[in-house]
Specification:
Blueprint (H helix, E strand, L loop, with lengths): L5 H16 L2 H17 L6 H20 L3 H38 L17 H16 L9 H8 L13 H9 L6 H34 L6 H32 L17 H5 L4 H15 L6 H19 L3 H27 L4 H27 L3 H13 L6 H24 L4 H4 L2 H18 L13
Length: 471
């Protein structure tokens, strides 16, 4: 069931009034039932995995809190990690590692027949396993007391607005909202409706109209020139941004309508001035999760700069592999790690050459934004490609066959992207993501009217799946 589909609209319109007519305890029962129904619409068989992860981590959280002996407490944390990472590893990575091993052995002259398992990846497994596992870790760290109410914990794990593609919510922020009584707030409801509308507009007007262009150009990567190759990368950069941020905007909006606040997951990432700044703006819930549960436990920036560089590289490589079981994602994660390490190494020099004159600082910032955007786009080439050969072919086209993109493709991409860019530029210059809602009523009226007509007349209503569902 997709946010951009009529079945979801019917589901939510029926759920919402019933939800607000109930007191807190029945509300949580309804949220749990809605979460399980929403998830089972993808594949009812995989609902058992979600329930298994929930039951195991609920029990582990209680045991970690009850037991005083450090070794036994840590044992239940390891049990939770083994279950969640084991499920994730089997469904997402077993064929990848088996095929990689077979290829490596073949290059050494050892031919071992390793069968390919027909495994269907359960939707959202990368998200809910991380969220459920982090609860046990937080209880172990004594950051949050364990909940004794199974329904509340199960509703936390299966909260349907962000269940299949995030944002990854911390137990310390979402679980208390489920435990406490919610009151209907008309301003929060209006904000939620705006976020749903804006998120779906980004999805169906921008991302889904860029999708066929990206698919066509990447599909004939062996024959296109450098201009079209670059245009394909730019188009994918905005497609994945509007697709994923559109989903999370809609998820946050749906949650607001239900009285919940989900974490901000995107903060104008293409206005970042450095790789480090980009990762503080893009998929914020994942980058902070990796920081707190992987980078810092590895040692963070303790132990000298070479340990810091090692920890950054390991974190980003694992982050790349989290996105998908393919070498293109491993290389993408490695590339992101190299960018972060390189920026750390160059930072003293960049600060030294940065202009001190306020007027020159503006152009320096613009230059940093442009350079960072293109470094990110180069990374998106690895992310969007189906093979490293395709990456090489696209790069070769850019270097050896440079050209100006064909008019029709350039016009289409510009027409789709330009309105979004103008809105985001206003948000960036005003330092206010909610600038639209703070403008005079007549400005808002014009904006909403234009979005509505773009949504109705220019929207792609083929019901295409969100990109991050595959992760």
């Amino acid at each position: 069931m997709l946010f951009n589909s009529l079945p979801f609209a019917y589901f939510f319109l029926i759920l919402l009034p019933v939800y607000w007519l109930l007191p807190k305890k029945p509300q949580n029962w309804l949220l749990l039932g809605a979460g399980y129904y929403f998830y089972s619409c993808w594949n009812p068989k995989f609902l058992a995995l979600l329930i298994l992860s929930t039951v195991m981590d609920y029990a582990c959280g209680i045991m970690v809190d009850r037991i005083e002996e450090p070794r036994k407490r840590k044992g239940f944390v390891l049990l939770s990690m083994a279950l969640n990472l084991g499920m994730l590893g089997y469904f997402k990575y077993v064929n990848f590692f088996a095929e990689s091993l077979q290829l490596a052995l073949g290059r050494m002259g050892i031919h071992v027949p390793i069968g390919h398992l027909e495994i269907v990846l359960p939707i959202g497994i990368s998200f809910y396993t991380f969220q459920s596992m982090s609860y046990v870790i937080d209880v172990y760290r004594k950051d949050i007391p364990p909940t004794k109410n199974f329904i509340e914990f199960a509703a936390f794990v299966s909260f349907f607005p962000h269940l299949v593609a995030g944002p990854i919510m911390r137990p310390t922020t979402l679980l208390p909202q489920i435990q406490n009584k919610r009151k209907f707030n008309i301003d929060q409801f209006y904000q939620g409706c705006y976020l749903i509308f804006w998120g779906l507009t980004k999805k169906v007007v921008v991302a889904d109209n860029l999708s066929p262009i990206v698919k066509e150009l990447f599909g004939r990567w062996e024959t296109i020139d450098g201009g079209l190759a670059m245009l394909a990368i730019y188009a994918f950069a905005f497609q994945i941004y509007c697709d994923f941020s559109g989903y999370t905007d809609a998820a946050r909006g749906i949650a607001k309508c239900l009285g919940f606040e989900l974490a901000l997951n995107f903060n104008l990432p293409y206005f970042a001035t450095s790789p480090q700044d980009f990762w503080s703006r893009w998929h914020i819930s994942l980058s902070t999760w990796l920081r707190d549960y992987l980078y810092i436990p590895l040692g963070g920036n303790r132990g000298g700069r070479w340990f810091l560089y090692r920890n950054l590289m390991l974190t980003m490589i694992i982050g790349g592999l989290w996105h998908g079981a393919a070498w293109t994602f491993v290389v993408w994660g490695t590339y992101q790690g190299v960018l972060l390490v390189g920026h750390r190494m160059l930072k003293p020099w960049l600060e030294k050459i940065a202009p001190k004159n306020p007027a020159d600082q503006v152009w320096w910032k613009v230059a940093c934004i442009v350079v960072t955007f293109h470094l990110v786009c180069l990374g998106w080439l690895f992310f969007a490609s189906s093979s490293l050969a395709q990456v090489g072919g696209m790069l070769q086209a850019i270097v050896k066959r440079p050209a100006i993109p064909q008019g029709i493709y350039l016009a289409q991409v510009t027409l789709i992207i330009l309105p979004l860019f103008l809105v985001q530029l206003a948000q960036y210059l005003s330092k206010d993501l909610d600038i639209v809602s703070r403008t005079p009523w007549y400005v808002r009226s014009v904006f909403y009217t234009l979005c509505f007509y773009a949504f109705i007349l220019g929207g792609n209503f083929q019901g295409s799946q969100f990109i991050y569902f595959q992760f």
